[in-house]
């Protein structure tokens, strides 16, 4: 595996692969890699000739300076994991490399970016679009892989690709969970042992709500999830919304959509966690 830190070096390397007719995949990450990331890379390796994994903690998508400062950075361990799973290239640029000057582009993805994460984290998705588009221009991948844990982000990236008419396929990959059900996240490493135990209530509640929903209305199911989280010490619910999986807009009845997803965000202590569950899928 090659580790490169400049766009120029990356492009030269990829041009040589492209001249040989090789297919190129991209897995964008912010590092602190875990088994969830590994599953994305393994799929990219299986389905393509060359798998590029970017490792970059993108400052423009953080609206909390402390969150940016505390985000885990483990480049050496990340590269070791990528080598094990067969990645071809690790692209680990500096902030100056990706932002040689201020990126003033403003994206609009209404109504996808005005709800849930978009409402709670102003500017977040604009920063995501800035960096992902930069990575797409640098790599020019045939396909890019994103995890469904960031369900709203996946929808917005698909919309960005449509708006910019980029020739890249976006592949969504299922949530990878720990054996106890907790959705894998780089932020999990910031949880204390006690907080980690409390966080299990998130997936436990979401999975319980699947059975609950079979006998109850959407409003009752929403209230059930909210009550379970509110009754768990140490968890502070930010939102739980049951939405159409394509428009991301809240629905009122199960029959309002054939693709229904419950999306949740909360604080476990000071650590913000997200998760989601599919109630109905096309």
Describe the model.
The protein is of the alpha/beta class and 282 residues long. The protein folds into 2 domains: 172 residues, 3-Layer(aba) Sandwich (Rossmann fold); 91 residues, Pantoate--beta-alanine Ligase, Chain: A,domain 2 (2-Layer Sandwich), CATH 3.30.1300.10. It is 41% helix and 20% strand. It has a 6-stranded parallel sheet with strand order 1-4-3-2-5-6, with helices on both faces. Strand 5, helix 8 and strand 6 form a beta-alpha-beta unit. Helix 7 packs across helix 8 and helix 9 runs antiparallel to helix 10. The termini are far apart.
Could you give a short description of this structure?
The chain has 282 residues and is of the alpha/beta class. It contains 10 helices and 9 strands. The chain is 41% helix and 20% strand.
Write the layout of secondary structure elements.
Elements: E1 2-4, H1 7-19, E2 24-29, H2 35-47, E3 50-55, H3 65-70, H4 75-85, E4 89-91, H5 95-98, H6 117-120, H7 124-139, E5 143-147, H8 151-164, E6 169-173, H9 193-215, H10 218-230, E7 235-244, E8 260-268, E9 271-280
Helix pairs in contact: 7-8, 9-10
Give the key terms.
282 residues; alpha/beta; Rossmann fold; Pantoate--beta-alanine Ligase, Chain: A,domain 2; 6-stranded parallel beta sheet; 10 helices; 9 strands; globular
CATH topology of the largest domain: Rossmann fold
Strand adjacency order, main sheet = 1-4-3-2-5-6
Helices and strands, in order, run as EHEHEHHEHHHEHEHHEEE
CATH superfamily of the largest domain: HUPs
Described by the principal axes of the CA atoms, the overall outline is: globular
Radius of gyration: 19 Å
Derived structural class:
alpha/beta
Find the count of extended strands (DSSP E, 2+ residues). Answer: 9
Low-confidence stretches: none
Strand residues, percent: 15-25%
CATH architecture of the largest domain: 3-Layer(aba) Sandwich
How many domains, in number, for the residues?
Answer: 2
What helical percentage do the residues reach?
40-55%
Multimerization state = single chain
Distance from N terminus to C terminus (CA atoms, Å) equals: 39 Å
């Amino acid at each position: 595996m090659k580790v490169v830190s400049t766009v120029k070096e990356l492009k030269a390397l990829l041009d040589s692969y492209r001249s040989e007719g090789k297919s190129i995949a991209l897995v964008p990450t912010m590092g602190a890699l875990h088994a969830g990331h590994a599953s994305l890379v393994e799929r990219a390796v299986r389905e393509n000739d060359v798998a590029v994994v970017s490792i970059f903690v993108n400052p423009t998508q953080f609206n909390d300076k402390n969150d940016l400062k505390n985000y885990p950075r483990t480049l050496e361990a990340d590269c070791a994991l990528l080598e094990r799973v067969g990645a071809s290239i690790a692209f680990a640029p500096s902030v100056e490399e990706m932002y040689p000057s201020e990126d003033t582009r403003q994206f609009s993805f209404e109504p996808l970016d005005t709800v849930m994460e978009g409402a709670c984290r102003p500017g977040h998705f604009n920063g995501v679009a800035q960096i992902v588009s930069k990575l797409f221009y640098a790599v020019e991948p045939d396909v890019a892989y994103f995890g469904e844990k960031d369900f709203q982000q996946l929808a917005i990236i698909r919309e960005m690709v449509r708006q910019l008419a980029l020739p890249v396929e976006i592949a969504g990959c299922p949530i990878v969970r720990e054996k106890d059900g907790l959705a894998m996240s780089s932020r999990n490493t910031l949880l204390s042992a006690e907080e980690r135990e409390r966080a299990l209530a998130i997936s436990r509640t979401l999975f319980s709500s699947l059975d609950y929903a079979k006998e109850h209305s959407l409003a009752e199911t929403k209230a059930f999830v909210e009550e379970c989280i509110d009754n768990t010490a140490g968890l502070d619910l930010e939102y739980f919304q049951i939405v159409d999986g394509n428009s991301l807009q809240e629905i009122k009845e199960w029959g309002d959509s054939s693709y229904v997803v419950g999306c949740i965000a909360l604080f476990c202590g000071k650590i913000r966690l997200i998760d989601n569950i599919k109630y109905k899928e096309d």
